[in-house]
Amino acid sequence: MPKILIAEDDRNNIEILTDLLTDEGYSLAIATSREEVIKLALAQQPDLILMDVQMPDSSASDVLNREAGLEATRAIKENPAIRNIPVIALTAHNMLHQKERILGAGCDDLQAKPYDFAALLDTIETHLRKPSK
Known about the structure:
By secondary structure, the chain is of the alpha/beta class. Helix content is about 40%, strand content about 20%. It has 5 helices and 5 strands. The chain has a 5-stranded parallel β-sheet with strand order 2-1-3-4-5, with helices on both faces. Strand 3, helix 3 and strand 4 (about 85-90) form a beta-alpha-beta unit. The longest helix has 13 residues, at about 10-25. The radius of gyration is 13 Å and the shape is globular. It starts with a strand and ends with a helix.
């Protein structure tokens, strides 16, 4: 059973993703901060990460820093132990115009919120089938 690490700070989104993905048979881990997602990725070696692009950095003095998801992705892709884990960015629909910036940060793909469940599951399955880089 593939393991997915959900990096998300919004409880409603966590609940939606948990319900959807457990119904599909995936094993899940949840991280709610940049630090936690990196720590769990190293410890649990998930098969895929769903990364909230606008997740806040819990350690930042500026609580308006909403780039921790991209910062975590960069850190993951720079770490040889976890760089091959596919990262799918979860982004607000109005951020799709920033696709190049999001993919440039190291994300392998992106999906908009609110979720199109069929598209999200298809994207997950596509990346789980790809051989490791």
